[in-house]
Design brief:
By secondary structure, the protein is an alpha/beta fold. The protein has a single domain, classed as 3-Layer(aba) Sandwich (Rossmann fold), CATH 3.40.50. It has nine helices and eight strands. It has an eight-stranded mixed sheet, with helices on both faces. Helix 3 links the parallel strand 3 and strand 4. Helix 4 crosses helix 5. The longest helix has 28 residues. The radius of gyration is 21 Å and the shape is globular.
Length: 285
């Protein structure tokens, strides 16, 4: 039997582990930053209101619109990462029954919109602003979940005259450890792939550097409704919801609800969600 040096065996093992690490790193990087899974990207829609599908922009952004006989009541619903506008169906129905014109936007790289490598809440917010100006929508309510909540809050921070008020579900307070938290939520070993957090935040930062200032929830001046799941494992309440509450303490027209036994963006599954949201809406309509 031919003798194989131990150093050769060890080097082959290390080489194999390195290749495996690089492959997993590549996959996890895009898993964190792009909507790459087909069953997510092309998930079925379940929009129950009479909405029509349209597109706008040089990169086709898909949006659904259901128009009523009003120009004063408008809402734009913004979905979360890896989701599409169908995920906002229950919320859309609540607004529709209250007489709103309802618009639902698919972010780039999601649903029926054109693809993009690195979709984010910041990039989503630029689309929202462009959409509002192009459609000449007057003082819309911006209602977003997770990535959509980031977009809603960012529009309110940078152009406070645009929204009548905003509803933010599962809104992060900051981005200091955001991707570490996302890796934990997605069961990715964050200590082994620690560098993904730094690289991912750099990519998001470059999307809006030179266009706007930093993300700061305390800059929001318009009325705000903050809704968060008590069991949110992606944006833990103690790291996000509680900090926003503290910063917004004493501010006029700020309301919040920490939803018992509710996970990330699943607050609408509770029986009392509709009643509670309507209670909030009546404060600012």
């Amino acid at each position: 039997m031919e003798y194989i040096p131990f150093t050769l065996i060890l080097s082959n093992i290390l080489y194999t582990l390195l290749i495996a690490y690089l492959i997993f790193s590549f996959f996890f990087f895009f898993f964190l930053n792009s909507n790459i899974l087909p069953f997510r990207r092309y998930a079925k829609y379940n929009i129950e209101i009479p909405a029509k599908l349209n597109y706008f922009g040089s990169k086709k952004v898909a949006y659904w619109e259901a128009i009523q006989n009003t120009k004063e009541k408008n809402v734009i619903l913004l979905h979360g990462f890896t989701r599409n506008s169908g995920r906002m169906n229950k919320r859309a129905s609540i607004y529709w029954k209250r007489g709103y014109n309802v618009y639902l936007l698919d972010n780039l790289g999601h649903g029926k919109s054109d693809g993009t490598l690195f979709p984010s809440g910041f990039q989503y917010s630029f689309i929202v602003r462009q959409f509002i100006k192009e459609k000449n929508i007057k003082n819309p309510v911006l209602h977003g979940a997770s990535m959509g909540a980031i977009a809603s809050s960012y529009v309110a921070q940078k152009e406070p005259d645009i929204p009548k008020f905003i509803v933010c579900e599962a809104l992060p307070h900051n981005f200091d450890n955001l991707y570490y938290e996302m890796m934990g939520f997605m069961k990715i070993p964050s200590k082994l792939f620690f560098w993904l957090d730094w690289v991912s935040r750099k990519i998001v930062w470059r999307q809006f550097i030179g266009r706007d200032a930093e993300y700061d929830v305390s800059d929001i001046k318009c009325p705000m409704i903050l809704i968060h799941g008590e069991l949110d494992a992606m944006f833990r309440p103690d790291l996000h919801f509680n900090k926003i509450i503290k910063e917004m303490a004493g501010k006029k027209d700020f309301n919040s609800w920490l939803v018992p036994d509710s996970r990330h963006t699943r607050m609408d599954r509770r029986e009392d969600y509709k009643e509670k949201l309507i209670e909030f809406l009546t404060l600012y309509e």
